[in-house]
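S.,

Sequence below, as promised.
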Amino acid sequence: MNHMSRRNFLKKAASATCLGAASYAVPGFLRHASAATQVTLALDFVILGRHAPFYLALKKGFWADRGLDVSIARGFGNVDTARRVDNKQADFGFTDLPGVALTRAQGAKLRMIAMIYQNWPHTIFAKPGIRTPKDLEGHVFGTPPGSTGTQLMPAFAEVAGVNWSKVKVVNLDIATQNAALIAGKVDAISTFRFFIPFFRSKMSDVSVLSWVDYGWKMYSNGIVAHEQTLAQKPEVVRSFVEGALLGYKHAMANPDEAVEALVSNRPEIARDAAEAEQPIIKDLVVSPEVNEHGVGYFSPAKIQFTFDMLYRYADLPKKISPKETFTEKYLSPVKL
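The prediction came back faster than expected:
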């Protein structure tokens, strides 16, 4: 072997040794960008500022670094998202625990794998004279028939000490309920906390009564997956959950960066509206349990409260147990 060929041989051998060492240091599914696993996340509703943490996870590579190529699709309601995951039209879904429980009662095979909204997002918006839930008595409350909020308002009334029989309930279309309150056609409605900036811009003296401030401990939105996905792709599931939770952690610490990640991917979203929703995300995600255990944590007490209310007020068959609807097997809560 001449001097030049010996030198080339040694260089190639050294390169091969380095590559071999690298292959042991990095999990197999991360070695080649071209081998990234493609997965789809179905959101709960149309894409809005509240979904910025997922887009920050995309932009910062929290999923890509874990070998995942994630596509995000809008949703059409929590129950619809649960059904899409059950029908394997999406690998993961962002939906609420009541929706998971109700679809499982109908035969669905999905489970919640990380809890995101520790605090229930429903909030009562009312005219100025209504300062507490008890003040709803003797007033007109507008609500869309069949919605989760409508089904659970009597339960909330019981928890908050309201005699619901003394409240006049009128049906409203979900598309017109906000306008009905602003126009004074009803005295109060209940909708998502994300509408706080909107109502304060339209009614400077609007009363804002969050359900969680009056003893309501029901869980809301988290990440769900089909049981078959959990069984067949456990590492993909763990990687997806970890990337999503990191997205929330960093978005809450860096809301401007989260908004930029969202609007750069979805330019049709108004930046000012997205910015207004960022503080509310933190209100929903952070709780004493999260401060202690981390984002994604499941509280046994809140799980039990959720099902106690669903059994009594949402016609949930008692054959569906809480343990059937969630699993912590793929979860490592992310500390704030």
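The radius of gyration is 24 Å.

Coffee later?
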